[in-house]
Design brief:
The chain is mainly beta. About 0% of the residues lie in helices and about 45% in strands. Strands 2, 4, 5, 6, 9, 10 and 11 form a seven-stranded mixed sheet that branches.
């Protein structure tokens, strides 16, 4: 069964950090670009970051650049999103998704991704 499972969300104070994990089962992430997306209540799903399959080239939305870092561990079939200096506006449900795009680029928009996780809630509040 093909599955992506996110974990690591929670409640954190402004300025804090969280590390989200996206674990794949039923398929190998090696040949997939992986994206992280988020959706806040009343807003459209937006791209946060993505990482290419062949050379781990990464994209970051301007709103998270310098604060978030995406990485992949193919041996563990897992992709991570390290989130530092969190702000209240980062509050959202975070989703990971897999795109069968092999190469040195990734799709920053939620288009063309075959598999999606169920999401993990991130709440940044004092």
């Amino acid at each position: 069964q093909v599955q992506l499972v996110e974990s690591g969300g929670g409640l954190v104070q402004p300025g804090g950090s969280l590390r989200l994990s996206c674990a794949a089962s039923g398929f190998t992430l090696d040949y997939y670009a992986i994206g992280w997306f988020r959706q806040a209540p009343g807003r459209e799903r937006e791209g946060v970051s993505c990482i290419a399959s062949s050379d781990s080239s990464a994209y970051y939305a301007d709103s998270v650049k310098g604060r978030f870092t995406i990485s992949r561990d193919n041996a563990k079939n897992t992709v991570y999103l390290q989130m530092n200096s969190l702000k209240p506006e980062d509050t959202a449900v975070y989703y990971c998704a897999a795109d069968p795009l092999y190469g040195s680029s990734c799709q920053p928009k939620p288009i063309g991704y075959d598999y999606w996780g169920q999401g993990t809630q991130v709440t940044v509040s004092s």
